Amino acid sequence: MSRVEQAASAPAFRTASLRARLIWLGIFTLLPAFGFIVYSTLEQRQQAMEQAKKEASRLLQFAALEQQQLVAGTQQQLVTLAQLPIVREQALAGRCNNTFAKLRQQHGHYGNLGVIGRDGWLRCSAVPSPSPIYLGDRDYFRAALSGQIFSVSDYQIGRVINKSVIVFARPVFDEKGGIQNVVFISVDIPGWFKDMVAHTPLPKDASLMLVNEHGTIFARHPNPEIWMGKTLPDSPIIKAVLAQPGADSLDEIGLDGVRRLHVFAPIKTSASGHAYLVSGIPTAELFTDVNRNFLAALTGISLIAVLVTAIAWFGGSRFILSPLQALTDAAKRLGAGDLKARTGLPHSGNELGGLAQAFDTMADTLEQRDAQLRTSEMRLANIVNNAGDAIISVDDDQRIVAYNRTAEQIFGHAPTSVLGQPLDMLLPPAALSAHRGHVRAFGREAGTTRVMGAGREVFGRRADGTLFPAEVSISKVAEGSRSLFTAILRDVTERYRAEEEIRRLNEELERKVVERTAQLETANRELEAFSYSVSHDLRAPLRAIDGFSQALLEDYEANVDDQGRHYLQRVRAATQRMGELIDDLLQLSRVSRAEMRHAIVDMSALAESAIEELRRADPERQVKTDIQPGLEARGDPNLLRIVLVNLLSNAWKFTSRQPSARIEFGLGGNDGERTFFVRDNGAGFDMQYAGKLFGAFQRLHSPSEFPGTGIGLATVQRIVHRHGGHVRAEGAVGQGAAFYFTLPFGTDI
Amino acid sequence: MKNKTILLVEDNPDDEALTLRALSKNNIMNEVMVAHDGAEALDYLLCRNAHAGRDPERQPALILLDLKLPKVDGLDVLREIRANPSTQLLRVVILTSSKEEQDLIKGYRLGANSYIRKPVDFGQFMEAVRQLGLYWLVLNEAPPSAGEPV
Fold first, then answer.
1. With 0-12 CB in 10 A as exposed, 13-18 as middle and 19+ as buried, what is B137?
2. What is the ipTM of this complex?
3. Is the separation of the CB atoms in A742 and A675 below 8 Å?
4. How would you class A216 by CB atoms within 10 Å of its CB: exposed for 0-12, middle for 13-18, buried for 19 or more?
5. Which one-letter DSSP state was computed for residue A362?
6. Mean pLDDT of all residues in B93-105
7. Which CATH architecture best describes the domain A33-307?
8. What is the C-alpha to C-alpha distance for residues A494 and A488, in angstroms, rounded to an integer?
9. Are residues B75 and B92 in contact, defined by beta-carbon separation less than 8 angstroms?
10. How many interchain CB pairs under 8 A, A with B?
11. pLDDT category of residue B149 using cuts at 50, 70 and 90
């Protein structure tokens, strides 16, 4: 862990930490396995101990049983011996030695058999002794002599055979019940022990020991010759046995230095003495397998731990740390403003892939937003900079914070000399204090936009000090706790100039109109005077010509022949025609000059009355008329009457040679307008001359065919035009004519 | 009828002759007094200047008044006639070449009793004069205080 940290460079500390965590995680997962191994090992050890203990106990029981059998067998033997005559009869004592010797040979474990007299001297012995031997001081003898039926000695060295023995003794009673002597059997403990061991199935390196309460070793397997007879109360196992007589088992180092699991049991020997039978099973052998298994498992788990560490190290690096590093790098680059930064990681389905995808998507979005923002900013900047009006922003302190190109052009200050400066530099000195008041008032207002100086003129001050009229609207935007005031300003000098020019031109125009009107009025008056003269003065001579011609005819009838009379008639006809011409001309000029008045005109009634007049003037004519009733128009009644009279008179005139003349008046046409028409079935006209019809003095017929001045249709056209309408004619020679006219004023009725 | 004077105010000698001819042809034998301009007509009617000695009681039974006149215009003559108590009830027929609407309106507004346009055709003129004479001199009753027989 610490080495990992050291190995990692400082910026990679976090990745190292993550790697270490991964390793720890791997190792932690191995802990239960390790625990299990330890537990299992302990359990196995426990089982081995139990097994050893069981074996030791079995060995101990076996040995104890053997020992009990020995004691029981020996007691039985002593009972038998006590009955023998050779023991009881003094006389037969001579055979005792031999008999006992034979008995000893039969019982291999008997070190000796003998009889001790009441005086304590050995009287009979299976093992012969060269000299008399006194045994009256032996504890078993004393116990027997005191009446104890069966006494056992401590473990001791036999005086006859000079071996480690236990002596069992019994008094021999005479008939009177007195004690004659004592019979004894000494058991060769090492021999017995050796035999017992020999036919006992001993586990390898098991030990069996007989030791008394003083720590004197009577027998031991293996190597009895080394330990027999030695008193070693301080050797670990003996010390432990003597110190803890109630212990269940003892895991101690044996006499030979081999560690064993020992069990032990006390054996009652003499009345006063104790001995212990101790069996031991070596533990070293026992735990070998367990330890080997434990080692193997430990090795295995260590290998796994190493493997886990390696996998965590390299796998973590490959699958987690590298992608994380890539993500971190990308995030750092993004944070540093590199919006093109991407993780470069595959967008796989796992968490890191998802994270990478999320990051890349975020970066994409960020980049797009940034691009949009840039575009938008650029657009806004372009708009502001290229705006036709000056745009100037000031902060709360009236210091200029924005100043566009048009402002530069209008005011003549470079942006560098304006930004951060007080707005005052752009205002006329006279307006400064008032302006501050306005701004303060606007700052308190609820509204956000208003036109500056509404209703009065506002001026700006250029760099050269000149003032110019401006049109300004200001807006207020809150930026946090501060306000930003933006003024959009237009130099209206040109407009003022233009307005001035317009005003001047208007005045001039008005003046000219007045002049022209006056001229026109004059002209009109002159024209009227002229018309008056024409109407009045041109007719007078005609009247004179006509009148005096008539007078000549009447007064000098006799002096004028037929030819002369004819000429005078022609003079009169010409004067009358001249009179008509003058009248028509006057009418034509009058319809142009007359003031129009508008009224609803009953066109049908006008037509009816015109026809009526024509009928009255020419009662012989049979003309069929068809006048559509109820037709109305809006216009000047007099002028419209002239129109209908002219058109109907024409129709009347040109149908004069038609036997079944027919004249129609109505509303029709298919061009979407209200079109009136006057149609007849008279002489008609050639359509190629239709254009000439409406010109003054234009005639398509000679006066001998049809009389007329050629002014009527010109008058009709003029009146229709004055009403905003138009007139046209349709016809064919011999097939009648139709005149159409519209009266737009009439469309709203 | 013969006692009733007609005052013809006419500057044009042709018209004067033709009018007189038409009157006589129609047997209107009344005395005709001709004034050749408006001033003369007024002098006659108001008995002043050249006509200062004339009896103001003898006023014409009918005045035929042309409009376009030298010196004083016919309409001014009419206005003067209607303004003056001694002439205000006289019968004035405007006899003129003009058919101008304005002349008609002004004429009637100023108190003309009739308005006749002189036709070019002498036959028609004759007819007009005949009817005029018949109407104004025969059929029409004159107001009591004016134009009484002289």
1. middle
2. 0.78
3. yes
4. buried
5. H
6. 83
7. 2-Layer Sandwich (3.30)
8. 17
9. no
10. 69
11. very low
Q: Which amino acid is at B19?
A: T
Looking at CA atoms only, how far is residue B83 from chain A in angstroms? 26
Cβ contacts (< 8 Å) between A639 and chain B: which residues?
none
- Structural contact between residues A508 and A415, judged by C-beta atoms closer than 8 angstroms: no
Q: Which of these, A734, A715, A731, lies nearest to A723 by C-alpha position?
A: A715
Question: Does residue A284 contact residue A84 with C-beta atoms inside 8 Å?
Answer: no
Burial class (CB in 10 A: 0-12, 13-18, 19+), A478: exposed
Q: Say what the pLDDT of residue A669 is.
A: 63
Cα(A165)–Cα(A210) distance, integer angstroms: 12
A710: amino acid identity, one letter: G
The CA angle A16-A20-A25, to the nearest 5 degrees, is: 150
User: What's the rounded Cα separation, in Å, for the pair A244 and B34?
Assistant: 195
Kindly list the domain boundaries of chain A, sorted by start residue.
Answer: 33-307, 387-486, 492-593, 596-748
Tokens 């048009």 label which residue?
A406
Residue A278 CA to residue A57 CA, distance in Å, equals 9
A536 chain-B contacts, CB cut-off 8 A:
67-68, 96-98
Which residues of chain B make contact with A591, given a CB cutoff of 8 A? none
Domain boundaries, chain B: 6-137
Contacts of B17 in chain A (CB under 8 A): 547
User: pLDDT: is B99 or A506 the higher one?
Assistant: A506
pLDDT < 70: residue spans in chain A: 1-16, 91-93, 268-273, 446-447, 452-456, 532, 535, 669-672, 703-704, 745-749
How far is Cα A467 from Cα A506, in angstroms, rounded to an integer? Answer: 27
B119 touches A: beta carbon within 8 Å: yes
Structure tokens at A133: 């031997």
pLDDT for B147: 44
Closest to A644 in 3D by CA, of A613, A668, A618, A684: A613
Residue type at A733 in one-letter notation: V
Strand ranges, E, within A429-481:
449-451, 458-461, 467-479
Q: Which of A539, A548, A550 sits opposite B97 (nearest CB)?
A: A539
Predicted local distance difference test score (pLDDT) of residue B93: 94
Three-point CA angle B131, B135, B136, nearest 5°: 120
Fill in the DSSP letter of residue A134: B
- Give the CATH number of domain A387-486: 3.30.450.20
User: Looking at residue B142, what DSSP letter applies?
Assistant: P
Instruction: Please state which of the four CATH numbers 3.40.309.10, 1.10.1660.10, 3.40.50.2300, 3.40.50.620 is assigned to the domain occupying B6-137.
Output: 3.40.50.2300
Contact A288, A297 (CB under 8 A): no
Spatial separation of the C-alpha atoms in residues A737 and A678, rounded to whole Å: 8
**Contacts of B40 by beta carbon, 8 Å cutoff, 6+ apart:** B9, B50, B71
B103 token code pair? 């002349």
Measured CA to CA, the distance from residue A188 to residue A166 in angstroms comes to: 7
**Residue A539 sits at the chain B interface (C-beta within 8 Å):** yes
> CA B36, CA B56: separation in Å to the nearest integer?
20
Helix (H, G, I), strand (E, B) or coil at A391: strand
- Whether the CB-CB separation of A87 and A172 falls below 8 Å is answered with yes
**What pLDDT score does B20 carry?**
92
CATH code: domain A596-748 is 3.30.565.10
Q: CB-hemisphere CA count at 13 Å for B94?
A: 30
Q: Which residue among A531, A550, A578 sits closest to B123, beta carbon to beta carbon?
A: A550
Check residue A91 and give its pLDDT. 67
Q: Which of B12, B100, B122 sits opposite A535 (nearest CB)?
A: B100
Phi, psi of A193 (to 5 degrees): -60, -45
SS3 content of chain B, % helix, strand, coil (to 5): 40, 15, 45
d(CA A274, CA A104): 27
